[in-house]
Amino acid sequence: MNLKSTLKKLGYAKVHKQMNDVFLKYTAKVVFLIIITFSINLFFSGHYTPGGGFVGGLLAAAAIVLLLLAYDLKTINKMIPFDHKWLIALGLTLSVFVPLVLMIFGQPFFTHQALYIELPIFGEVPIHTAVFFDVGVYITVAATTLLIITLLATEQAMSDSEGADRS
Amino acid sequence: MMTDILPLLPVLVPVIAGIVMLFTGRRNVYLQRVIASATGLILVILSVVTIIYIAGNGMAVTHVGNWNAPYGISMVIDMLAALLLFGTAIVTFTVVVFSFQSIGAVRERFFYYPMVMFMITGVNGAFITGDIFNMFVFFEVFLLASYVLITIGGTKIQLQEGFKYYLVNVISSNFFVLSVAYLYVSVGTLNMADIHQKLSAFEGDAAILTIIAVVMLFVFATKAGLFPFYFWLPGSYFAPPIPIMALFGALLTKVGVYAIARTYSLFFIDNIGFTHQMLLFLAVLTIIMGSIGALAYTDMKKIIIYNILIAIGVITAGYAMMDEAGTIGATYYLIHDIIIKAGLFFLIGFIIYRTGESDINRLGGLIKIHPVAGWTFFIAALGIAGVPPFSGFYGKLFITESLIDNGHVFSAIIVLLSSLVVLYSIMRIFISVFWGENMDFSKLKPISYDKLLFSSFVMIALVVILGFGADIFYPIFESAAQSLYDPASYSGYLLEVE
């Protein structure tokens, strides 16, 4: 079966197993793929129809949270080997600097530019700057949601009773 | 080209600085300090350039995404917004410098400077946006950052008061969306200038507008801390450390006042007898409640916090008149109050960090150790109370004149009496902290405080300049007030679009 282990195929040989719910784990893998695909679909349909980076990012985070439920935090951290805060910064950078570069065209902030190119199979494909902006939104939303949920999931002591003012 | 870029820079510069600081990581505190203070300085220069540009060329307008007004979102800087941008910029710069020696390394590592920058993004955005829904978005931007700032460090009182602050603001934000929805249903546009033009020619039943005015007043009064809705303010502003307190006290309430002034000059022009009368009523009650609080406490932080309420009341009373003298006075007092409140917070912050005490009864005789700081505090006290050559005087002069002209003699007397209360409450701090019996000087903390004093001196110097140069600055404030008492001059930019 090609669905034998999505994670193993991606190179994550060691999957941490704490509880042995085979059904949940197997289903989670399948459903994860479906949700991620749907989130990418939503993301690309965003410009003219409902969807976009925000909803797509939320769905992607939901998919990863599903894996988090089925497996554990270590697996997720191996799957996404980046610091969530760094990902947020990356997403913000994309969504600010893409419109900023466009100001070089002498147009107001956020004015979008489109380029149509011919590809062999797909035919005419638009390259739209709004897409790159939206990629930034997607990453930021997904990473923020994940950061919140993983922070709540880990029982890391964020602060004691006196916090930063303890001496 | 120039007009396309200039209006957006006050939003873009801090957000870019914030993102860069996110990348530099939390370990490198020194780099964060450099970036944050440089950004503050850039913002100050930028806002001065903006003021000069607007004085020469009139309003700076850009249509984001090249969607023309009233369909797209417009960024509109008139003189009022430009002056507030200057106030925000100078407070940002001095707060950042003040933080170097006061906020503590732990908080600095937990994204303190990026959060300050993101908050400034929201505050600046709320000042310059020309779209009422976009204003809501920028309100959310600075509120989100302020939730982080009020709880940063996670001390018990911060979490307790932060939760209260969060709850109050979430509820009032919901009502903000609600009132914007009402407005959109009845007018059919969200561009503030366009709403003004549509409402000037409004034929239908204006009762709905009175309802919207009340809902919007509820929202902005909660943010600004007007009379029935100020209950969260003394507690929440008391919780965070001094630099954050200065940032909140100087800026966040003023955003609420700005929003009141903007909406009440542009939207609610039909039923002035009710809406503006209500505004004046709440303003006077705010002054009275603030005065009671300022006299009741012996904690320096509480005294200054209740002085915020008095100032909010005085400014709102000026804006409630909505005539020429009232708006000039209120605008002048608004800028004056941003600067002097930050300066006072810095000065008491210096005292608190130096002595470790905030109760005035346990302090005394500090003038022997810190004569310069003591006399600076004295000047600040004269300035905030409005003793003539200093800047508070001119604002109150115009506001009182306008109140008497419009027949609100009682309110005028309250405004004048509040000056006495302010003078007494601040002088009480001065007398018992700097004069009085010597405290135990061996208990003074051996901290380095040159940057704490630097921030205070900058602010107090600005107050003195603002006061002595009132004649020179008068045309600037007059043109700032013009877009309030003559809203047609604000909405005029729409004509150029067609």
Question: What would you note in describing this structure?
Answer:
Chain A: It is found in: Cell membrane. Chain A: One of its GO terms (cellular component) is plasma membrane. Chain A: Keywords: Cell membrane, Membrane, Transmembrane, Transmembrane helix. Chain A: InterPro entries: CPA3_antiporter_subunitB (IPR050622), MnhB (IPR007182). The complex is a heterodimer of chains A (167) and B (498). Chain A has 167 residues and is mainly alpha-helical. Chain A has one domain. Helix content of chain A is 57%, strand content 7%. Chain A has helices at 6-9, 22-44, 53-70, 73-79, 84-102, 129-153, and strands spanning 114-119, 123-128. The longest helix of chain A has 25 residues, at 129-153. Chain A starts with 5 loop residues before the first helix and ends in a 14-residue tail after the last helix. Chain B is mainly α and 498 residues long. Chain B has one domain (2-497). In chain B, 77% of the residues lie in helices and 2% in strands. Chain B contains 22 helices and two strands. In chain B, strands 1-2 form a two-stranded antiparallel ribbon. Chains A and B meet through helix 5 of A and helix 2 of B.
Compact summary:
Chain B: It is a multi-pass membrane protein. The complex is a heterodimer of chains A (167) and B (498). Chain A is built from six helices and two strands.
Number of strands of chain B: 2
The helix count of chain A comes to 6
Largest sheet of chain A: 2 strands, antiparallel
CA-based shape of chain A: globular
Taking pLDDT < 50 over at least 5 consecutive residues as the criterion, the unreliable ranges of chain A are: 157-163
Number of strands of chain A: 2
Order of helices and strands of chain A: HHHHHEEH
Query: What low-confidence regions of chain B span 5 or more consecutive residues with pLDDT below 50?
Result: none
Radius of gyration of chain A: 20 Å
Indicate the overall shape of chain B.
globular
What is Rg of chain B?
A: 22 Å
What is the CA-CA span between the terminal residues of chain B?
19 Å
Helix-and-strand structural type of chain A? mainly alpha
Quaternary state reads heterodimer
